[in-house]
Protein: DUF1453 domain-containing protein
Amino acid sequence: MNGWVLLAIAVVVLVVVVVRRVRGEPLNARDLWVPPVVLTGIGLWILAHTSGLRPADHTWLLGGALLGVTLGYLRGRFVVVFARAGFLWQRYTGRTFAVVAGTLLLMAAFGLLATRLGMRPEARPIQLSIGLSFLGESLAVTLRGRSLGVPFAPERS
Structure:
């Protein structure tokens, strides 16, 4: 599959997820976990089909993955999780977007540093970065939701 097509898919998924979360939405496990798992899977698929990765690429990739999950988890701590109609809901706020801006700057700085110190850009698929970040966010939101003792919302039909 063409890299531009995969990037477009990632952007569409990202926009849909963010718009729904700004408006507030019932929090169900499928909507929370499937998009980041799909994006991470696409990123890993791209990475698996990237030839000539060097040990330095793997090291920077691991560091970027850990940073992405950690920053996503931090962002998830700023997502409002609440009970409505007997189920969990979530909503992004202005504070969430402030954290998003900060994490984007940190990830951009990390990527620039990695590239300047020898990591090849094709060893950093954007889909993988976005997916891992949302995995971290999903973990934080899930833990916060579980602490409320309210069930996830049912799947939409």
